[in-house]
Write a structure and sequence with these properties.
Blueprint: H1 4-20, H2 22-29, H3 35-46, H4 52-63, H5 70-85, E1 87-94, H6 100-114, E2 117-124, E3 131-136, E4 139-144, H7 145-157
Parallel strand pairs: 1-2
Antiparallel strand pairs: 1-3, 3-4
Helix pairs in contact: 1-5, 3-4
Length: about 160
Amino acid sequence: MNQLDAVCDDMRLVNAVCAENHLLVTVFANPVIPEGKKFAIVKDLFEDKVTKVSMLFLRFVVRKRRSVNLKGISNAFIELYRNEKGIVLSHFVTASEPDDASKVAVQKVVGDYTHKTVELTTQVDPSIIGGFSVSFDGNMYDARISSQIAKLRKEFSKNVYESKL
């Protein structure tokens, strides 16, 4: 039906709503609430915002009593979409807000390494003091000053000049 991109956007919306609203996840997890009411909630939340295909899928998920897994299902769909389109998710952590040139440089390096398109998420973490870390596909490049200090502290804790007899 050539609606893969639109359905992926819909699943991102479903994922974001489930992530933001803990009460919604609790309602979906409650076995006492009938599926009809759960579907009414899903319909009220998403009917005007998602495609018809996505709405039919959400109805199917609720009918099969899998609404508790809606966040996980949307995550899995997004991951399958990334695999299909050759997109790698990369997480860039810095001590201060990165500029656009840094983001572009990280995207280029990760893209050259993986030979895929890079979807970059950023996070500011002042506890790393300085430097950055980049993680993607189970790999991590760690250039944080805090981790380098920890390595130095570990090395200095060893006394290399003491005889080990």
